[in-house]
Amino acid sequence: MGEAQGSGKHPYLVAADLRTADIATKCSCPSRKFPCKHALGLLLLHAAGTDNWQELAVPEELNKWLEGRAQKAEGGRQKAEGKEPDPAQQAKTWAKREKKMGTGLEALELWLSDLVREGILAARKRGYGEWDGQAARMVDAQLPGAARLVRQIPDLLHQDSGEALTAHLGRLYLLTQVWKNRESLSEGERADLYAALGLPLDKAALIPSDQTDWLCVGSVTEEEGRLTVRRTWLLGNGGEVALLLDFAPKNMSPSAGFQPLHRVGGTLAYAASAFAQRAVLDTPEGDIQPAPLPRHLALPLADLPRYWAEALAKNPWLERVGVLLGPVYLPPEGWQVCSYDGYAIPLEEGVRGGYLWYLRAAADTEPAYLFGEWNGQSFYPLCVSPQSQTVHEERP
């Protein structure tokens, strides 16, 4: 540990815990970077082996931090050894976090009310620092999901109609209101609320599926903040849709996935939700055999708005659904998916360009079946099966 003199009157207290390979740092400075420059300086001094170190009593606030790390490590050790955690300690920890989250959501409600009262034009004049500051306050309140939604606001500010921004703010405000009545929710609804707020997946509440045979229908890899996230979609024999999520540090790829339009075996369990979609696949057996998209399970394009509305009615924070559409076609001009009875939906921006030409070629100018992601505004196709062909090789 050490002291770093900043611009203020009192120096910052900075420390590094090197007792395990999981190095952690702590500093009393207001920086949002981890580790901060003061912690990096302390680590560099330690690595350099300078001889001006002294032995002093550890301050109380650092003792609390070290004790918390020790408790966390003990909990991980017990879990690895198969020991049951202490229910009383779990309840105490949850009560502490619940109080912190409630305080953060009360502040968010007030902030949103002020934002709407001032109007969209006033919001457009706010600097990015204000949005980042509010997101940081949500992180401090252990609400990473709310922080993520706040960070998305600047991207919606300058749309002419303001419709997307209004809907987005509505979902954020709904979080603050539903939190107050969380005890009256069903188990699935409460799980959706916690997921929207950013709480980790409760693996103890997973609901096993009887089905062990699935068809991989594509995946998408995106950068989200400091993480790389891969969404893999599976389709069951009865039309069940399962979403697998894999995470890796930014600029790194998750572990190897499954090949599209190939069968996947394994024990699957759904996360608790009012609209079951996210799942965990245990002991997977991938790439068993190729298979086409099951045409008899396809949803007509005309029924997509109803399907989306029913999904949102169950989980209003849903960002996308996986859906099999068909028969449809991709017109030679324009960025749309069209049906033969006159319905059309726009393709997502990322589909335009070379990938769109690939999709058109794979459809082979025939009625095709597409599986992809629908977010209420645009469709992102992940794989295609023409009627006349059994299996098509998909993009990597």
Plain-language structure description:
36% of the residues lie in helices and 23% in strands. The protein is an alpha+beta fold and 396 residues long. Helix 3 runs antiparallel to helix 5, helix 3 runs antiparallel to helix 7 and helix 5 packs antiparallel against helix 6.
Provide keyphrases for this structure.
396 residues; alpha+beta; 4 domains; 6-stranded antiparallel β-sheet; 5-stranded antiparallel β-sheet; 10 helices; 14 strands; disordered C terminus
**Quick check: average pLDDT?**
87
Strand content: 15-25%
* Major β-sheet profile: 6 strands, antiparallel
Strand tally: 14
Order of helices and strands: EEEHHHHHHHHEEEEEEHEEEHEE
First-to-last CA distance: 49 Å
The global form is globular
Q: How many distinct helices? A: 10
Q: How many domains make up the coordinates?
A: 4
Any low-confidence stretches, pLDDT <50, length ≥5? 389-396
Biased composition (Basic and acidic residues): 70-86
Region (Disordered): 70-92
Keywords: Metal-binding, Zinc, Zinc-finger
Domain SWIM-type: 12-47
Map the helices and strands.
Blueprint (H helix, E strand, L loop, with lengths): L1 E3 L7 E6 L6 E4 L9 H12 L11 H21 L6 H32 L1 H5 L3 H13 L3 H8 L11 H18 L6 H11 L9 E2 L4 E12 L2 E10 L4 E9 L12 E9 L8 E7 L18 H11 L6 E9 L6 E4 L4 E3 L7 H10 L4 E7 L4 E8 L10
Antiparallel strand pairs: 1-2, 2-3, 4-8, 5-6, 5-8, 6-7, 8-9, 10-11, 10-13, 11-12, 13-14
Protein name: SWIM zinc finger family protein
Organism: Deinococcus lacus
Keywords: Metal-binding, Zinc, Zinc-finger
